[in-house]
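Hey, weird one. I pasted the Nuclear transport factor 2 family protein sequence into the form twice and got a warning about non-standard characters only the second time. First submission, copied straight from the form history:
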Amino acid sequence: MLRFVPALVFSLFTLSAQAQAPASMALPPEFEQLLRQYETAWRGKDLDALVALFEPQGYALSSEQQPVQGRAAIRAHYAPVAGGPLSLRAFAVERSGPLAVLLGAYRYGPGPADQGKFTLTLRQDAQGQWRILSDMDNGNTPPPRRAAG
């Protein structure tokens, strides 16, 4: 069961009030390494390396799709879409003991504009390795407007 400290929840929600994209931040080395491993595995469509970053019963929570749990399901979920010039950047991180939450943005290819954002919920295992407990992402495209009436 995940428990978040009030300061963590408060600091995460204050980010949502910002009108423009938050600035990138330097991460502690272990989190920076995890992001670069994720990028490398995604770009090379190395699904074995990608799912190895997750806890065995971790979750992938993608936009407009049902949650998937477990490495086999995550592998199948990412297989048709992995690959390409993914770039990840972080703009917030909070750690409380063996749990951490990383907020960031992503884009594909060159260009300054973020195409979406993500949260990674991380848990440190008994050997000190950080693993992804959940990976949630969604694009920056606004949802379609409903017709008035």
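That's the output from the first submission. The warning seems to come from a hidden character in my clipboard, not from the data itself. The first strand starts at residue 54 and ends at 61.
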